[in-house]
Amino acid sequence: MDKIVIRGGTRLRGRVDVEGSKNAALPILLASLLSAEECIFRNVPNVVDVRTTLRLLEGLGAEVERLGDSAVRIRAERLARLEAQYELVKTMRASFLVLGPLLARHGHARVSTPGGCAIGGRPINLHLEGLERMGARVELVEGYAQAEAEELHGARIYLDFPSVGATEHLMMVATLAKGQTTIEHAAREPEIVDLAGALISMGAQIRGAGEDVITIDGVERLHGTDYTVIPDRIEAGTFLVAAAITGGDIDVVGAIPTHLDPVILKLREMGVDVREHDHGVRVIGNGRLHAVDIKTMPYPGFPTDLQAQMMAALCTADGQSVISETIFENRFMHVYELNRMGADIKVEGNRAFVSGVAQLGGAPVMATDLRASVSLILAGLAAPGTTEVSRVYHLDRGYVRIEEKLSALGADIARVRE
Length: 418
Ligand code: UD1
Known about the structure:
With 418 residues, the protein is an alpha/beta fold. It has helices at 22-31, 48-59, 86-89, 99-106, 125-133, 164-174, 190-201, 233-246, 261-269, 307-314, 333-340, 370-382, 393-396, 402-408; strands spanning 2-8, 13-17, 38-42, 63-67, 71-75, 83-84, 108-112, 137-141, 144-148, 156-158, 180-184, 205-207, 213-217, 225-228, 249-253, 273-277, 280-284, 294-295, 320-324, 344-348, 351-355, 364-366, 385-390, 412-417. Helices cover 31% and strands 27% of the residues. A four-stranded mixed β-sheet has the order 22-23-1-24, with helices on one face. A four-stranded mixed β-sheet has the order 2-15-17-16, covered by helices on one side.
């Protein structure tokens, strides 16, 4: 298994390009199942989760062809299987989103339920209740969700929580349901808007994506498309924090400032110089960071996927920061690893109290999930001494060649094969 070895203490400088958004790309790739025609998607990041999704599509019988490093052609004309198995869904929860598209195209499907993961329970009740409101019969049998419907119809659906996955799942299905669907209290993340953009380019009729209520008028069929995925706001945000934590100067090219509003505002509160420009965002760190409080919230609130990275930065800030995690119940696994590097963090329920220390020190640490693993890398970049981050397969699920990108910015970082 690979590990990442970092000798920290260098200020990072230079420019870095942002990849396409992993979280936008995954549902967009799956949307190809809704059409019998050829779909081309561009700016798709070459990360493990994308490769897993392409294997899933192939397993279902779709023709998949990679066009270079970041584009892919998919044709799901005839499907061979209407099933996704536990072995796959357990490694990547987003694959549960195949249930609805398979059901909408073929009237029945069987997909393993995801179960829990390192950051919490990850229930699917909102997905299933929404499908039922559109006329599906759903049964949970031996760990699988089995759904069938002669015809799906439009419905008024209210989500108790603005779940990203449930909004995406139900929006996809509604494009082919008969009549009008409204999703109320919908998630408003940029990835929702991007999926809607992809579906609209395939002929779907969707209004209100990015707002509280999304209205979808079902159509007979969707056609093919050629669609480009948005830049990854979480990868971009990770580089913004990398500049802040190392007191460096990084121009993050391709970052969309409006997607990063709360992150930019918090960085400024921390005393960092953040400059938005036409092609991205440049961050210039200067001196010790100030402590700030952070509360993760659905978009446009502070993203939970940048909570761990921000915590790493606040470990050496001047004063105490309180970080409240309101989206996932157990997303503080990185705390204990950061403490091994000399941080002073106490957890009470869903709040972490971070008392800034003068400096972190290098240490061997272990990644527990995707964003936790990158927070340990950020901490290692700031800590004099050697940090070894093991279990980096989590990292590869969502970041493209991050060690190469950081190295190009001047970091002393390498991947070591064990
Ligand atoms: C997506 C992102 C993930 C991000 C998260 C929140 C992808 C592939 N993943 O995950 O990176 O951290 O959004 O921004 O895009 N919930 C229910 N019932 C449900 C569904 C969700 O109670 O049926 C709860 C979850 O337990 C969680 C909260 O809603 O507490 C948020 O989950 P959700 O927005 O669905 O996250 P994902 O779509 O899984």
